[in-house]
Amino acid sequence: MPYFVYTVLSLTIGAGALTGLWRYRKIERRYLPFVWLTWAGFGNEVAANLLVRQHSNIVLYNVYACLEFFLLCLQFERWGLFRRRPSLYYVLQICMLGLWCTESLCFDIFMVNSYFLIISSFAVVLMGIETTSEMLFFESYRLLRNSKFLICSGLILFFSYSILVEMFWVFGLKHSVAFRVRIYEILYIINAFTNLVFALAILWMPMRPRYILQW
After folding, report:
1. Which domain, by its residues, includes 109?
2. Is 132:156 a contact under the CB 8 Å cutoff?
3. Is residue 26 helix, strand or coil?
4. Per the structure, how many domains does the chain have?
5. Backbone phi, then psi, for 207, in 5-degree steps?
């Protein structure tokens, strides 16, 4: 796959970022962390594509992965996932921050934080599954136009595959160049597909009441 195609696929997050910018003042506040995430993701992709030509973008990638996880945690918290176990929200963040710092500072800072990516991706998948399960039980009407359902489905798909990619890398399959290229090509395609789903989800996010929009 040509580098230009990789670039275009990675920048599809811009569709969600621009949609979120357009609808920002109208969207319910409990959905805003995900909009912030699309902005951070678009900025990260632009910066990464600029840096990769002359410098390594691994440090930037690691920092973004950490920010991405905390914004997703905040989004699930806004959706009420931790309402029965509020302490779990803080414990999860403290543990993941500790893991990220340990892997970044105790190992080579210019290496991808694979263990953090695997564990954080697994946590996001679990949060997405639990949120989706609640929706299937309580909000089964018109799920394909439900922003929360679309976001959770996209997160489950993307991060499930991300876990496989990082496990392949950690457990030695990195030595096969052809295999590595193929799994990353699939990852880019899945990433582009979920980015477009996210843009659609942002377009369908619930609006704030009119009396709030007037402030």
Report:
1. 3-213
2. yes
3. coil
4. 1
5. -90, 150
